[in-house]
Amino acid sequence: MKPRVLVVEDERALVTMLRYNLEKAGFAVAEAFDGEEALLRVAEWKPDVVLLDWMLPLVSGLEICRRLRRSREARALPILFLTARSEEMDRVRGLDTGADDYVTKPFSPSELVARLKALIRRSQSGAGADRLLCADVAIDLAQHRVTRGHRRVHLGPTEFRLLSHLMRHKGRVFSREQLLDAVWGDDCEVEARTVDVHIRRLRKALNEGGASDIVRTVRSAGYAIDEPERAIPG
Amino acid sequence: MKPRVLVVEDERALVTMLRYNLEKAGFAVAEAFDGEEALLRVAEWKPDVVLLDWMLPLVSGLEICRRLRRSREARALPILFLTARSEEMDRVRGLDTGADDYVTKPFSPSELVARLKALIRRSQSGAGADRLLCADVAIDLAQHRVTRGHRRVHLGPTEFRLLSHLMRHKGRVFSREQLLDAVWGDDCEVEARTVDVHIRRLRKALNEGGASDIVRTVRSAGYAIDEPERAIPG
DNA sequence: GGCGCCTGTCACAGAACTGCAATAGAAGGC
DNA sequence: GCCTTCTATTGCAGTTCTGTGACAGGCGCC
């Protein structure tokens, strides 16, 4: 079956060009010209990947992205951003928008196709492992279990999600705001400092029994979970 | 291009079975029957992921894993352990092996494939382009981490931003005022001389342990970071 | 209701970082 | 050599950020 890509873009000429290239590359293509339409199409047409313009009328691409990430069925839907230039690219990269990849205009059609395919391949290769490892800490997502070495670790729901998120992106530093978005949900209204408290509870639970701390604090930046003492992987 | 998996396993029958299943699942497969061969194959064939038996003749799986982690190119190579039963699984988990995941025998081929794909996906999405290199100094922006050679370097937030900025524009000289604008922010009200102090702190942190200085002072102009010892020809 | 568990907030203590100023040192012009 | 100009280094005090313990409210359960 052909992979289905939803193109969300308000510039008609660009849409025509994209449709031509994507169909030539073996995709089934659907179009949406603004954010509202995009959300509708996602719900009814169930694309495998969304190609999303950053600048859209009515609702911005970023907002669409957020809404998709919040919805239950579309949470894992791969999203590729189309951005106008590097300045905006920085924003896509800098903010944790939940985008999976981005391409800056102008772009080559073949590059675009390659990236779309890569995204689809990535997303279809299993909905992620149900197990995460880091040093001697293991999470079994299916069983909702955490162990440190041989010891069972008991975590509250929030600490569990926090740990999962940090371990899913091992090494990466998340700001308190990013963590609130990812772990508490995009629209929660919670003090940023509350993250500290949960980090503390997480540390306390993990380090009980004198184990070393795998949670790294990065001053004025946030928190990360590290594989201990491996230099930057390259 | 097909993802490449290196199977390291001494039991021939198992290798045959694995090859059959993995190729059916779209992997390119290479084999190694002991540790030495494995290391060779990694170096020459550059697999995307290694499937490593825990029990191997001559050199144990654990040892291979360690050596791979120590080498520069294979440091980030995802490794999936094959272990005989839960007792060994505990060791994989308990020791700080550097394994990314493990599967216990007997296993279902589809589970194995799913985990391999998950590992590859994770490692490809994680290997961000958010790195800056200069000589033996590396910055990983996502991880907020700096290394010099194999040593981790701790920097305060300001020094981190300063180094990032200088390395993003390798070789270029910035005046104190330019650095204040770029690193401290457009409208900050800080003495220009303060830049000196942070440059000092940066140098001190980077050169700890007697490394050569990569920060260049340009009298009456400012500072720059250079790729070392490439003399201007002519 | 009483109980245990989880959560968000606050206040305080302590650690880390920052900017400045004073002094010492280096580079260049004459 | 001498003077001027610019940079390096250091100590310190103020500020900012994080760690931690305590506490009250919410929720489900018995």
CATH architecture label name of the largest domain in chain A: 3-Layer(aba) Sandwich
Low-confidence stretches of chain A: 87-96, 230-234
Count of DSSP-assigned helices of chain A:
8
Shape of chain A: elongated
| Secondary-structure element series of chain A | EHEHEHEHEHEEEEHHHEE
CATH superfamily of the largest domain in chain A: Response regulator
* Biggest sheet strand line-up of chain A: 2-1-3-4-5
Biggest sheet features of chain A: 5 strands, parallel
| Largest interface, C-beta closer than 8 angstroms, per-chain residues | A-B, 32 and 40 residues
For the CA atoms, what is the radius of gyration of chain A?
20 Å
What's the number of extended β-strand segments of chain A?
11
Report the portion of residues of chain A in β strands: 15-25%
Q: Which structural class should the secondary elements of chain A be placed in?
A: alpha/beta
Count of folded domains of chain A = 2
- Tell me the CATH topology of the largest domain in chain A: Rossmann fold
